[in-house]
Design brief:
The complex is a heterodimer of chains A (112) and B (542). Chain A is α+β, with helices and mostly antiparallel strands and 112 residues long. In chain A, 45% of the residues lie in helices and 25% in strands. Classes of the chains: A alpha+beta (112), B alpha/beta (542).
């Protein structure tokens, strides 16, 4: 019987008032020095963020979870970020479901 | 005459009768034939005579004849410059005028050089290129997919989510309408769907081919055949069912996703507020990149394909055995290939494009993809490339029976060109016009190939008209008709018509008669004294 492999969980957290932006969602990927930052006002780098996520997914499939913020003032934002990460993770799992074999072969090519 | 009770003619060397080319009712007919009875000869020949005589015209050589030809061997002989070749060309003109161009093959020794070039001249047809590439549109669609790649716009899903939580999520209607907060879209993998459909389709085709072939009936009895057919029918139906389920599954997901998106759009418009987006745009980016990678991968696989060589049997050559002409089609970017490119001066560019495609394939899911595609698109546009046909090259060459490559000598070129004409087996070919087929091919080829093949064609009822100086062809083929062309000192040309059975040749203009045997010995053997000398030299005569 096939057992489902538990995917590694990557954390996403909310950072407020970073460099004049109203909030920044920070995705930290262990072992990857690059921090993926996503602002609600400045999304011109969204494609770079997405490519970085796909690139990471090719290396090692993962699931994305939101790390709830303890700051009560940011409660509304926290809720939105949680949903965003949920939708983002839904996209990632969709990619994983679609091309597990392909991702693995791609991974081999990349490794080569 | 040896008695009719002879069982084994090999016991009577030198007494064999020549091949009997005419059907005879009995021994009396044979006696009449041996007596060269004109009536019985003509009666027999008439069975193979063309209904309409040929109008053979050439004013320069004073040719204006109406000649009956036979669906058998018709030999034209004569001295040098008697206009034999012109006569044959005039026959060809007549047949072409009458609309028989596609029913004739010809061989003129003076054209060997050009015909050999044509024989070697090979450019793959569109169908061959398509078959080699293995893609219905020769890769046009794949190249277009890559060239037309546009980074999908993501929208600001953050803002939509925030709007949703700040206003929309608090309304009763939003809570009642599940789709407003729905985010899980149904899996809709078009490439997986197409792949699975492709497998089913291929399986169906295989079973259909199996089912439609006659070979099952060769090996199975009636009962087993019915059982096998029943099982094949069952398998076909199973495939149809699976295909239907696959179709329903994929398109129902597609429909559900479109409905959710549609409802969300309507809700957003009507209530002037946000619904939760179903995606951040990441999946869309992945899908569009995946399409490009798939397209690039397919192209790269085609560019890596091995050469395809088609061997076409081209006849037998002394010392080389059964030789073949090879038509090779392959990729010009392969360093080992010495192919003529379909698109001239394209090899370097083709290599650059190939590298660019490999890069796209490898960098498919990265931010660099856009710049890779931009540079590839420039290369494709500057060099007007829209199909994988442009990457192909071709070559033609001859190989020996042992598969080694060789360049035919002049004599071998004659053999190859003649062989192509002689060995043409198309049922629509009725006329074989051969001008001095013995030229440059060697006596061995004449006796072993040309004469037997002419006899074979005659047995099939084909009309063979052959100009020759060779006794083996002129006599050995047992011609049904002989035309003798003669040029005289007064500048006049004469055409004598006759046959070996009657041993007579008659000038159609003056009525002058000659003996076929005398003319044949003079023209084909070099005269009686030469013939005698040969026989003495060989020790066949004292």
């Amino acid at each position: 019987m096939e057992t489902e492999t538990k995917l590694e969980e990557y954390k996403a957290e909310l950072i407020s008032e970073d460099e004049g932006k109203s909030f920044v969602l920070l995705l930290k990927i262990p072992g990857n020095p690059q921090k993926i930052m996503l602002s609600d006002t400045d999304q011109k780098d969204l494609d770079k963020v997405f490519y970085a996520l796909i690139d990471e997914l090719l290396r090692k499939p993962f699931t994305l979870v939101y790390d709830k913020n303890q700051n009560t003032e940011l409660l509304g934002m926290d809720q939105a970020c949680e949903k965003f990460v949920q939708i983002l993770d839904n996209d990632l799992q969709g990619i994983l479901d679609e091309g597990k074999e392909e991702l693995l072969s791609k991974k081999t090519e990349v490794d080569e | 005459m040896i008695g009719s009770d002879v069982r084994d003619w090999s016991l009577y060397p030198g007494k064999e009768l020549p091949e009997l080319k005419m059907p005879l009712e009995g021994y009396d007919s044979l006696k009449l034939l041996l007596r060269k009875d004109t009536n019985i000869i003509e009666k027999r020949r008439d069975s193979k005579k063309h209904e309409t005589p040929f109008e053979v015209v050439n004013n320069e050589y004073q040719i204006n004849e109406l000649i009956p030809f036979y669906k058998d061997c018709n030999v034209i002989m004569g001295g040098k410059s008697s206009g034999k070749t012109i006569f044959l060309k005039a026959i060809k003109d007549y047949l072409e005028r009458k609309g028989f161009s596609s029913s004739l093959v010809d061989y003129f020794s003076e054209n060997v050089k050009d015909e050999y070039k044509k024989l070697l001249d090979y450019t793959p047809s569109d169908a061959e290129m398509k078959e080699y590439i293995g893609l219905e549109d020769c890769g046009e669609g794949n190249l277009a997919t890559i060239k037309n790649f546009v980074l999908p716009s993501f929208g600001n899903s953050f803002s939509k989510i925030r709007d949703y939580y700040e206003s929309s999520s608090k309304t009763t209607l939003s809570k009642q309408l599940g789709f407003v907060s729905c985010i899980n879209s149904f899996e809709e993998d078009s490439s997986k769907y197409e792949k699975e459909r492709g497998i089913l389709s291929a399986d169906y085709q295989t079973i259909s081919v199996f089912d439609s072939g006659d070979f099952l009936s060769k090996y199975l009895n009636k009962e087993d055949l019915a059982a096998a057919k029943g099982l094949l029918y069952k398998a076909e139906n199973k495939i149809i069912d699976e295909n239907r389920l696959l179709f329903i599954s994929f398109h129902s997901h597609e429909l559900a996703n479109k409905c959710i998106q549609g409802f969300k759009g309507i809700y957003t418009q009507l209530k002037a507020t946000s619904a939760l987006p179903v995606t951040t745009g990441l999946k869309g980016l992945y899908d569009s990149n995946k399409r490009v990678i798939e397209a690039a991968k397919q192209i790269v696989n085609v560019l890596k394909k091995d050469d395809v060589i088609r061997e076409i049997a081209s006849g037998e050559l002394d010392g080389k055995g059964e030789v073949s002409i090879c038509h090779k089609i392959g990729q010009i970017i392969k360093p080992s290939n010495d192919l003529t490119a379909i698109k001239s001066r394209f090899v370097t560019v083709a290599k650059d494009i190939s590298k660019s495609l490999s890069k796209i394939q490898k960098k498919g899911f990265s931010f660099d993809l856009k710049s890779c595609i931009a540079s590839l698109s420039t290369l494709l546009k500057e060099n007007d490339v829209s199909s994988l046909k442009d990457f192909l090259g071709y070559q033609s060459y001859f190989i020996r029976e042992n598969k080694s490559v060789f360049e035919p000598s002049k004599g071998e070129q004659s053999v190859l060109v003649l062989s192509k004409a002689l060995q043409c087996n198309s049922p629509k070919i009725e006329y074989y016009l051969l001008d001095e087929p013995e030229m440059s091919v060697g006596h061995n080829y004449v006796t072993k190939v040309i004469v037997p093949r002419i006899k074979e064609l005659c047995a099939l009822g084909k009309t063979v008209i052959v100009c020759t100086h060779d006794a083996n062809i002129g006599v050995g083929t047992l011609p049904f008709q002989v035309l003798y062309r003669e040029e005289r000192n007064d500048g006049s040309y004469h055409t004598f018509l006759g046959n070996p059975f009657a041993d007579t040749l008659i000038d159609s203009g003056t009525g002058e008669k000659k003996t076929w045997k005398d003319v044949a010995v003079e023209i084909l053997e070099g005269g009686r004294s030469a013939l005698n000398l040969r026989e003495v030299t060989y020790g066949d005569r004292d």
